[in-house]
Amino acid sequence: MPRVKDERRALQRAGERLDSADGGAWVKNALSRFIEAQQSGSLATGLFVVDSVRIPGQVKAIREAFGSAVHHIHLTAADEELERRYLSRGTKTQELTTYAEVKRSRTEKNVGNLAKLADIVVATDRCTAEAVLVRATALLGLYPRATAPLVDVLIGGQYGSEG
Fold first, then answer.
1. Taking a C-beta distance cutoff of 8 angstroms, is the pair 16, 107 a contact?
2. Angle subtended at Cα 71 by Cα 70 and Cα 72, rounded to the nearest 5 degrees
3. What is the chain's alpha carbon radius of gyration, rounded to the nearest angstrom?
4. pTM beyond cutoff 0.70
5. Which positions ≥6 away from 15 have C-beta within 8 Å?
6. Phi, psi of 25 (to 5 degrees)
7. How far apart are CA 106 and CA 55, in angstroms?
8. Per-residue pLDDT tens for 50-90?
9. Extents of the domains making up the chain
10. Chain centroid to CA 47
11. d(Cα 121, Cα 113) in Å, to the nearest integer?
């Protein structure tokens, strides 16, 4: 919806209209177009992050399109922390006065329910940004495998140790 004003409330309403029209598949469609535009060969490669899904239908559509390559990481924090972050962020979008106003949207009220669909839930107000990164990286399997073990088997040397 390119003609939507760059204002939080207008963007929320536009997203809700799109969700009502196709159950959230519009996010998958936009992601598919973006990936196609980025690929250089016959198969898309890379890591793509969708920030952020808002309804179960969006998650479902993306999972149906991309299967096991999708990893849903749900980030949470207490409302007080989200309010603090909301007020301190810089953005070109015309924002609402408080985070509480943002959560008046019927969609925003229910975002927490997406935790039930997630592969991992990370409480970002209980850990550092680095710890969030470690959890996401581990889920995605981006950490290299450990080197070969130095000791494979230990065998006792005393009588009866065969048991």
1. yes
2. 115
3. 22
4. yes
5. 54, 107
6. -65, -20
7. 10
8. 998 999 999 999 999 999 999 999 999 999 999 999 999 88
9. 8-140
10. 12
11. 11
